[in-house]
Amino acid sequence: MEKQSTTPRPNRLAWGSLLVISVGLMGIIAGAFLGARFFVPDNAGLAGGAMVLWYAILGSLVGTLAGAALARWLPRPWLPRSAIACGIGGLAALTFIGVAVSKSAKEQQIARKESLENLLRFEFDLNWSVDHDDRPFDRLVYRSNTNTMTVVGRDRETRTGTLPLETRSTLLGILRQFDLSGVLRTPPSCQQTGPQIGELRLTIYEGMPPNTSGQLKITETCLNENSELQQLAKEAARLWKAAEKS
What we know:
By secondary structure, this protein is an alpha+beta fold. The chain is built from six helices and six strands. The longest helix is centred in the middle third of the chain and has 40 residues, at 78-117. The model has no long low-confidence stretch (mean pLDDT 85).
């Protein structure tokens, strides 16, 4: 009488789970590739990335359902082989996703750095009146062409420093809002509503003339109503605190 083997048969649930996960991973790659190749228009712009992600999710869903169907209906002898083959494919897909994400992150970082390094030159002078009790400092001057910041504190002590690229980009964006809002061309009515508590002078050296420049008298009403002035005052106060600690 032939002795029956005591070796347990491969667990169908384990092989099936491997098959479902592997086919789902391959579905992500297939969905992203097919979506980008055939369904995302060339002029999609920034929305193209979101569209590709949607097709990747759709591919993952289809792959998961297909893997579940295979795990359910494949004959037992074929299941381990299919699961191992798809597992290799899933591992390759996972590796591809990791490499693609890492490469995309590096490219975005390089592009951002190049963008920041090509910032327009600008400068501004924010001067608070001694009658403004809530002033964090008396005066802050920044010039991007030399990347120098000079701050005069309420104690009349002068501190200097430099700013990282990200901060310079933030400041330029805030100063640009003064131009876009029109307050540099048409003095706002808030300037006539109370005593002057400060003054802002700014210049953005455009790629082509004329440059953007102007002067803004600051009152309490202007400070409360003007969002870009609030942003600049907040950022300048943050820079002062950092300079004070250094």
